[in-house]
What does this fold into?
Amino acid sequence: MSSSTSSLPAWPPLLPKKAKNFLAQQATDYALAHGIVYRPLPAAANQEPAGDSVIHAPFSLFPSPFPRPLLHKAHTVQPVYDRLYAQVSVNHVFLDKVIGQSVVHVDEFQKALWEIYTQVKDDLVQPLSLGLFRSDYLMHQIGASELEIKQVEFNTISASFGALCTKVNAMHQHLASTTAGYLGAYPGLEDMSNLPANNGLTILAGGLAAAHNAYLVQQQQQEEQRQAAKTAVLFVVQAGERNAFDQRHIEYELQKQGILVVRQTFAEVQRNVSHASDTASTNARSRTLVLDHAAFGQLEISVVYFRAGYGPGDYPTNVEWETRKMLEQSLAIKCPSIAVQLAGAKKVQQVLSEPGVLQSFLQNTDADQLETLRETFTDLYPLDDSPLGKEGYRLAMESPEKYVLKPQREGGGNNVYRHDIPPFLRQLETSSSSSLPTSDIAKRQAYILMSLIQPPSGVGNYLVKACTRNPDATAAGQDPESRAVLASDTVSELGVYGAILFRADTPQDNASSGIRVLHHESGGYLLRTKGRDSDEGGVAVGFSVIDSLFLI
Ligand code: ADP
Ligand code: MG
It folds into this structure.
């Protein structure tokens, strides 16, 4: 099934200055009133953000035009992607080949994750695993007017902005419906079927609730004495997280369903768990995770939801690594487990695009669906000593303007673009910074090469950003004119969410998928928009704003 489609309207609609400022102020107040907010940057780099004030998250004034068939395609392939990555996570032979025998030799962070994975994998007391995934795409222009979606990456840990994007969608709907379609700025903006509701927040919270409930069922079946009177979901978070409210909104959804949630950093978990395991002797045998909580007393943890732990910065000392390992070994259901985190490595994305690999995982999948999924791949190359790897190296050196080079990292700011690639690869050959001794080609194994997706031009938006430091530090924050800035050439990245609760299934025959699925729901979306001149796409790091879809 091919769903290429034609071009986008010129955007944003022209607005008189007064109308733009009016809409920007309406939007800003809606954002502040509905929790589309961040903590402000701390006054100094070594301080934590203030605990008692917020600024609105950056957002676009208009929703951005997006072809309906392309959203449909992204939603169609999401369940297949969810199952695919769940299957990868339970396939030790595959993970070992792709990560264990390759990437870990040249990447210290992946090596540390891999070590925990190999230490815990044969001794798991919790068979269930929860994936809250997000598959990211850019629109790709083929020829003069054909548009497609191409996958940027597949996120298996800490996929964020589900809550804030759900609320930005509601904000755009609110503006459209209370101002007769943005003051009549463009036909169709008054029609809510073009601004479809985003259920990303419900899907993420639904996955966590399903895992929590599955844990309770397991405990009832075990007929074991509950370790603590109360059971809770644990969010493992970064200290000083500015994007805390994206997480809080998920917490509030769970609380509406009567589920208790606590937030702790790795260091706090370490402090709070050690005392509990001294006092409860059966913990060691059942590996029930029990935390001492200042307000609730002893809490048995059903699900560990990692909104930290995806990058080296989250493990400053051995304490964080030890805590991660302890959590992996515990009875709590992990979101994600370390295997699911490893499955999200960019190297996995590259290997899945090699001939025959997709088919080997998705044997029971309809051929059309498989083809639709494959259409979302852009060209991906390893940089190892395989024939494909040598081809990748040649392309990177000879036509770097077509490529982006990616290490095995998450969270933005790690990629090398276009003409920076050849000097980077040459410098890699002479560097000896890593403590892992390797040859030149081996060092390149830590990277993948990806062809650059070419998003369509002619689309812009008004980007509304708050003054990022203390709100009263400058008068600029008062002036909508200086905050809603026209970006005339923007690029929008679509993410689609999936929540899948699964366990490894012993293969009965060759057609077994390797997983048994207990809960699976996909949909919703994140739309992030940035000026084309910025290569990276992070919202939290200030490159992008949160946007929503105007379907055409
Ligand atoms: P991270 O894990 O840091 O989010 P990504 O693979 O998502 O890494 O890359 C970061 C950003 O770089 C993306 O949000 C996108 O804006 C840009 N980017 C990544 N891959 C491509 C590509 N193939 N073509 C065009 N832009 C890309
Ligand atoms: Mg990304």
Confidence is low (pLDDT under 50) at residues 276-282. The pocket of adenosine-5'-diphosphate (ligand 1) is lined by residues 136, 138, 152-153, 378, 404, 406, 410-412, 414-415, 450, 452-453, 493, 535-537 (CB under 6 Å). The chain has 19 helices and 21 strands. The radius of gyration is 24 Å.
